[in-house]
Amino acid sequence: MAATTTTAPAGPGRAAAPKRKGDTFNQKDKPMQVRLSNITAAKAVADAIRTSLGPRGMDKMIETGKKEVVISNDGATILKHMSVLHPAARMLVDLSAAQDVEAGDGTTSVVVLAGSLLVAAEKLLKKGIHPTQIAEGFQGAAAEA
Hints:
This is T-complex protein 1 subunit delta. It comes from Coemansia helicoidea. There is one protein chain. The protein is mainly alpha-helical. The chain is built from five helices and two strands. Strands 1-2 form a two-stranded antiparallel ribbon. Strand 1 (about 60-65) and strand 2 (about 70) form a beta hairpin. The longest helix is centred in the N-terminal third of the chain and has 21 residues, at about 30-50.
């Protein structure tokens, strides 16, 4: 008996539909696409906040949901007023809030550093290095530091 096939075409930005019924977990590129999507979303937050860092840091103008305008170059304030919906990008906002609670300073720096680590991880993923090895390498580097 032949397996049932699906005919759903793949659109731009979507993975191809499974060839056979029950073949969903045999797509090898789907986890990689998800990882790269998460990295891209988090990098966007880090890049948005990066230009407010340092002595030549620029102010950001943010319009809140209540139509109020906030102008600031403080990373914690900017991230607090940004409406970030992506879960991976939201983690950077939470990271900034945790840094603010713990040390009271360095909120922008910690987001920029995390963004740089994500850029490095993305390069390693594209070289074919397994995510577990990348995570273990980061943990080893943290232990050395």
